[in-house]
Amino acid sequence: MSAHRQTEDNLHYSVSMLEPDDFAFWRHKARQLVQSNIPPERVSWSEAGGCGDLFSGGDTQLPPVPNDAATVRASKRFLSLAKNVVLHTDLERFALLYGLLWRQQSNPRIMEDKTDNDVRRAEELDKAVRRDSHKMHAFVRFRMVELENGEEHYIAWFEPDHHIVRANAGFFKRRFANMHWSILTPRGCIHWDGDSMRESPPARRGDAPCDDPTEDLWRKYYASIFNPARLKVSAMMSEMPKKYWKNLPEASLIPELIANAQKRESQMVAAGEQDFQAKPETLEEVGTAINRCRNCPIGDCATQAVMGEGPKNARLMIIGEQPGDDEDKAGKPFVGPAGQLLDVHLEKSGIDRKDAYVTNAVKHFKFVLKQTARGKIRLHQSPAAKEIDTCRWWVEAERDIVKPKLVLALGASAARVVFGKTVSISQARGKPIPLEDGSELWITAHPSYLLRLEGEARATQTQLFDADLAAVQQRLVQL
Amino acid sequence: MDRLTTIDKLGILADAAKYDASCASSGTAKKNSLGGPKGRGGIGSTEGMGICHAYAPDGRCISLLKILLTNHCIFDCHYCINRKSSNVRRARFTPQEVADLTLSFYRRNYIEGLFLSSGIIKSSNFTMEQMVECARILREEHDFRGYIHLKTIPEADPELVYQAGLLADRISINVELPTDAGLTRLAPDKNARQIEGAMRNVNSDITETKDARKRFKHAPRFAPAGQSTQMIVGADQATDSDIVSKASRLYDGFKLRRVYYSAFSPIPDASAVLPLKRPPLIREHRLYQSDWLMRFYGYQAREVMDAADKDGNLPLDIDPKLAWALKFRETFPLDVNRAPRDRLLRVPGLGVTAVNRIIAARRHKSLRLEDVGKLTVSIAKVRPFICAIDWSPTALTDRADLRNLLAPKQEQLELFAA
């Protein structure tokens, strides 16, 4: 400290802060002290109402600043840090800052030395204050009260750790400019009426309203946006410590959300997950597994699941829609009227059914019982998209095992089970669609469609059907 | 159709949005609600940093009112709970309802703004018009100056996407899946070319309006917080390498602000083509860490991929930075008193803050190991990779069991991975 002149006295000085968050006052006093060359160990700082330390009660009248006193130096970083550190509740903060200011006069770059204990301590205090301010921005929750004149007044109760209320008034003013609001805290209150800011003495929790109907909506949102499949309580706790919970309307839901998360997740999984272990590796395994399959409700009504049929290394796989009444009873695909019609046309196009693997998009017969004059009959029902998608697993297993070069889909359900989406038959038919595994998908109508038509329409569609089969036969020869 | 109350709809449409990973409300233009055209000011502010107003027990922050305008959808994407063939309960908000809800939450300081997404009803254009209308009501009728994030629909008319960008702070277009094959299989109604085309349009609109603002003060702002996207992880066979390389192409090609990764989550009423188990959440975490390495630590996508194992996936038990360092041990140890900034950033355990502190502190003194300890979170992790005045770890980097020494305990991983 050779640059400093020695003061004549060796007195202790005590400075009493009038407001705990008054940075301007601290700066004024600190500057005066440095200029009078009074080292930190001879100064004690206290807050109004505080009892100070051993030396308080000493000479509080600071000596006059010498006329030729050097200007006091402080780095930008120090000033921005000090503004925040003053807001901390630590009683040592004023002395800590003064010590750093003092040391800066001989070492102007002291603030850059992050290994210095005082610098580190000041940064810790700064961090705590910034965190507290951030939490205030985040966790102030206004409740709306309708005043007698019909205006809305938004009132919040908040308990900050540090003296941050006044320093953060601007944030709320900039955010809620056209609202009337008050933030009540045990460290003082701020009020904004749309034009001006007002301060008032500390308040108690009971001074704030205790309810707002919108909180029900907010709690609904909070509970719904939480994904129970991703429970991570510690991550939540570190960002939203429990001490804040009592003033957050949504926090009351947390224990229950956590307690039920596992149950909700397993329900989600159970509702969605198919009860498959691994994809079967042989056609026999597929046959056994589909009989047990209850991943969709159809499985319960049919007599049996109907497995595909044909050579397990067939070059052509023909996929129909689902078993009908006859197939369900026989346990074999395409044995009913539609199957017989298919056989006729396959033969006409020169495709030998015995060389093809013939199967269905959906493995179980779906029907409704209908009362007729001849008693109850089982009336065929088209499978829903969901049922087709569920059964896609089995058809893919069959495709993986048989590895056909060409897949012929009969009708929209069959096309969906291979292609994953509903396509228009009229647009997709008659041309190859390349599949991921290198094979080709061809799409045509289902023979039962032909059965339902009459007259000219039937003749036209039959012709188209034959043309598709002929194209498939031709393509098979090429492949 | 039974009539749903607002609270019922909110429950359904927030539930439908819970699989969405993005929630950020930062990085936009500074705005506040003082003054303005209506004299007494509007409502809302953005001061650069976003604020997380609450945290859900899944550890994710709640910064925005994240909801769907509707969960009706004409598309049939297998990974999506709202797909056409799903049996989920449906609901639909009017744009006015969304605006009212946003304002009543905002006024109570529950949120920073709105993140609006939607299932596709009637047509892509119709849906996009409705979303734009929500933002218009907020901005024009209520002078709302808080954050708005609109998830745009790539199939919609580019003019509508442009309107969205003029009203929103951020717009996003989801790439959904990292590979084209995955997209074809799981999102049959979507088209990779169309998605990237929409991103390209948004990027050029952002660039043009930024340019215009340099010349004309009153040129309109267009998505000042940029555009982002989301990828689903673990629903198809794509490896971490596939994902990282896709992300890097998106960052470079379309100047995206963020790529979000969303671990495929079991959804009720799932489609049968999806895997049976969700991927470990830790995988998503490792991808975010690698994303961080590319955005803030100067790693190339190639280098992150080098850190992956033979199967193309990043190790789950250690972070990607440590994985890279263990593979390229010859580049260590680094001298904390001499090494340049970009090299120090490669040291496992040293973050950007710690590196900045080291560089500032070493102007004052030569650092000892103890000094470095004061500047970092954990010296144990850093020690094997650095030299200081009184420290040299030569023996350590050669140790075959270094990975085991530095990896967290296995039991712990299992416990918290899920």
UniProtKB/TrEMBL annotation, chain A:
Keyword Repressor: no
Gene Ontology MF annotations: 4 iron, 4 sulfur cluster binding; deaminated base DNA N-glycosylase activity; metal ion binding
Keywords in alphabetical order: 4Fe-4S, DNA damage, DNA repair, Hydrolase, Iron, Iron-sulfur, Metal-binding
Domain Uracil-DNA glycosylase-like: 307-470
One Gene Ontology term from the biological process aspect of the record: DNA repair
Pfam families, A to Z: DUF4130, UDG
Family annotation (InterPro entries): DNA_repair_put (IPR023875), DUF4130 (IPR025404), UDG_Type-4/5 (IPR051536), Ura-DNA_glyco_family4 (IPR005273), Uracil-DNA_glycosylase-like (IPR005122), Uracil-DNA_glycosylase-like_sf (IPR036895)
Family statement drawn from the similarity comment of this UniProt entry: Belongs to the uracil-DNA glycosylase (UDG) superfamily. Type 4 (UDGa) family.
Name under which the protein is recorded: Type-4 uracil-DNA glycosylase
Naturally occurring in which organism (per UniProt): Pontixanthobacter gangjinensis
The organism's taxonomic lineage, starting at the top: Bacteria, Pseudomonadati, Pseudomonadota, Alphaproteobacteria, Sphingomonadales
UniProtKB/TrEMBL annotation, chain B:
Name of the protein in its database record: Putative DNA modification/repair radical SAM protein
Entries under PANTHER family matching the protein: ENDONUCLEASE/EXONUCLEASE/PHOSPHATASE FAMILY DOMAIN-CONTAINING PROTEIN 1 (PTHR21180), TYPE II SECRETION SYSTEM PROTEIN K (PTHR21180:SF9)
Cofactor names: [4Fe-4S] cluster
Gene Ontology molecular function: any one: iron-sulfur cluster binding
Keywords assigned: Iron, Iron-sulfur, Metal-binding, S-adenosyl-L-methionine
CDD domains (alphabetical): Radical_SAM (cd01335)
InterPro entries: Aldolase_TIM, DNA_rSAM_put, Endo/Exo/Phosphatase_dom_1, rSAM, rSAM_sf, RuvA_2-like
